[in-house]
Amino acid sequence: MSEFFTEDLLQWYRHEKRDLPWRRTDDPYKIWISEIMLQQTRVDTVIPYYNRFVDVFPTVHDLADAGQQQVLKLWEGLGYYSRGRNLHQAAKTVVSDFDGVLPATHDEISKLKGVGPYTSAAILSIAFQKPYAVVDGNVIRVLTRYFGIKEDIRSSKVKNRVQELADELISPDSPGDYNQAVMELGAMVCTPKNPDCNKCPVSSGCVAYNSAQTDIIPYKSPAKKIPHHQIAVGLIVNGNSELLIALRPNNVMLGGLWEFPGGKSQSGESLHQTVTRELNEELGVEVEVFEKYRQLKHAYSHFKITLHAYWCRITEGDPQPRSSMELKWVTLNEIDDYPFPKANKTLIEGLQSLNDSELKRFLV
């Protein structure tokens, strides 16, 4: 059964595969870039980022020589920013330790920052035609349906079983095409809801299809409730109509990005109190908090936030980077040069519609 699965899948892929920019190259560096960007991110979202990135950094030497801020600015909006930081560091390693050539062995490539089991298998198979099978959400869905695996896909037992099946199914002659084919099938045909089984090249052997169980396979136990945090930040303006921004440390979430200073509201604390406390802790200043400028909602992978931005005026002290790597005063014309998280970026887009007199209502 597995022999026909692989042959039929490869034949389908070679006729039906999408024309994607990273499929038009055999450059291991560019394949690596695409695989990092595609982690937990939709193909349509990745395409423009990938094209811009390889235009600016056409070789691993170009990426290694770049500054982190330039890399993160190109990554801005793509999310999961540790991917960009790790990719940048790994490029430096490739240049310094491997003479600018991406390593083609599992042990060596797995030592690069940001390259885990899935990414190493994808790069080795697609770029170097080595028979390492990938397992992601698409692969899990295809194989659990095809083999009728009904257990919880969150369990390590099921994940290990799927990996074993993937290892058995992979084509030794075309491992890169096979891995892309099974992921393509999951993305385009064997979708989570309403799979188009009539277009599936392997439906004749699919247990879920033949037993009308595609709506219950794969089974995934309910996720834990996602927490929701209230975040309050301060908008501080100086006499030059410049706003104060802070650079997040590299070792925290959204590290290497800039933000408006502030933080999470504590239990029993008003949002005004949050801003006052956070700016004192982060900047070493006392502030007067004025009106709210805007609030907006944003969702991350494991939690959600409501971001509240308040106009503030410093009443005592000079701002110091107590919890950030650096502070800067920037004009709204300059602020686009700095990489920001998406929620802060949304605030900036509104602020850029204000004129100097509106900004100077709340001077330092």
**What's the helical proportion of residues?**
40-55%
Give the CATH architecture of the largest domain.
Orthogonal Bundle
What is the overall pLDDT average? 94
CATH level-four homologous superfamily name of the largest domain: Hypothetical protein, domain 2
| Quaternary structure annotation | single chain
Helix/strand-derived category reads alpha+beta
Topology as H/E string? Answer: HHHHHHHHHHHHEEEEHEEEHH
Shape: elongated
Low-confidence sequence ranges: none
- Domain module tally: 2
Largest sheet: 4 strands, mixed
Radius of gyration: 24 Å
**Biggest sheet strand line-up:** 4-1-6-5
Number of strands: 7
CATH class of the largest domain: Mainly Alpha
CATH topology of the largest domain: the name is: Endonuclease III, domain 1
Q: DSSP helix count? A: 15
Strand content: 5-15%
